[in-house]
Amino acid sequence: MTEPLEAGATAAPDPNISDEDFEAFRPGHGGMGPTVLQMLPALVSGGVERGTVDMSRAIVQAGWRSLVVSRGGPMVRELERIGATHIELPVHSKNPLHWRATFDSLVDLIHRERVDLVHARSRIPAWLGIKAAARNRVPFVTTFHQRPAASNALKRAYNSVMVRGERVIAISHYIAERLLADYGLDAARLRVIPRGVDLELFDPDKVPAERMIRLVNKWRLPDGVPVIMMPGRITAWKGHKLLIDALAQLERGSFRCLMVGDDTARPDAKKALEAHAHASGVGGYVHFVGRTDDMPAAYKLANVVVSASLDPEPFGRVMIEAQAMGRPIVAADHGGARETVLPGETGWLVQPGDAGALAAGLRTALSVDEDARAALSAKAIAHVRRNFSRYQMCARTLSVYTEVLAARGCERL
């Protein structure tokens, strides 16, 4: 059995172990292991959702039982294909009129399904889940995914439920430090578990040319022109406008920029960004292509991947996915990027919010010769495989579950 991890511990590197190998966590009596209930607002897209699905797969592969509560979404089908059970409840709702009925349903669900542990990944679900878990006398664990945003007392009070778990999982050391400083969290309850990437999916050797050609044709990319890619949904703090300002400082026609990510939730914001690109003289070189169902192929098309977030990223899954695909990163020098990007070795960190610094980073990345690029690619792939695999993330989280359940005397371990 994997030993419980102390706060601040680094992932145990083992790139040779399979993502499917969770035998060490199987219950010793040969029966069904504990039942874990994960809670999040929805299963649409994003890092929280991906982490939930990844953990559900690990829970099932360990011989445990995985339940997930959310309002639903397209990723429910993926969840159910791996053997987890989804229960639709409005745990996303901020309307107090819904809370009592949802809480009662949760209390009944935890009792009826003999849930052994509740794991909340977002604030409204956590406020409901902590009380429902207490009513059933089962342990409560949280993962702090979001930006701490503890600049005012009201926000701190709203976030505070996320540090009230028997164990609190921080997705980066940046988040862990903020939780200790801003919330007075007891370090003994804190575990740092970086997000993990699926090394089978994000493997450049497993993306055939046909998949790349499909995207080239779909996005009408010209031959021989370097591609700058910024993955991420359209929201102001992600820095799309800043990237456009940086692109305006590059030579016209020397690049194509793909903004890859959900742009349906805020159509006015997308239109404003497109207008800004045209006004800046780069409208013909910037393409908002929306979501894609093949991010590995998208990354493989890129010459450089950008993370231009104006506020610190809590972790930044894009950065490890891109590096897993051997692609250099240019990222803002704050937050999780400082833990995932090796400056000058797997990418470059630039002054946050500075279009000139971002433009300089892009020029450097695009000017790297073929040999240096190959060396950077190899180092980036090795870096992610050594430190940020999906297996490591899931095994360490299962260790946290085991630690908490053992302390409670769970008979199904």
UniProtKB/TrEMBL annotation:
<dbReference type="InterPro" id="IPR028098">
    <property type="entry name" value="Glyco_trans_4-like_N"/>
</dbReference>
<protein>
    <submittedName>
        <fullName>Glycosyltransferase involved in cell wall bisynthesis</fullName>
    </submittedName>
</protein>
<dbReference type="GO" id="GO:0016758">
    <property type="term" value="F:hexosyltransferase activity"/>
</dbReference>
<feature type="region of interest" description="Disordered">
    <location>
        <begin position="1"/>
        <end position="25"/>
    </location>
</feature>
<feature type="domain" description="Glycosyltransferase subfamily 4-like N-terminal">
    <location>
        <begin position="46"/>
        <end position="200"/>
    </location>
</feature>
<feature type="domain" description="Glycosyl transferase family 1">
    <location>
        <begin position="217"/>
        <end position="380"/>
    </location>
</feature>
<dbReference type="Pfam" id="PF00534">
    <property type="entry name" value="Glycos_transf_1"/>
</dbReference>
<dbReference type="Pfam" id="PF13439">
    <property type="entry name" value="Glyco_transf_4"/>
</dbReference>
<keyword id="KW-0808">Transferase</keyword>
<dbReference type="InterPro" id="IPR050194">
    <property type="entry name" value="Glycosyltransferase_grp1"/>
</dbReference>
<dbReference type="InterPro" id="IPR001296">
    <property type="entry name" value="Glyco_trans_1"/>
</dbReference>
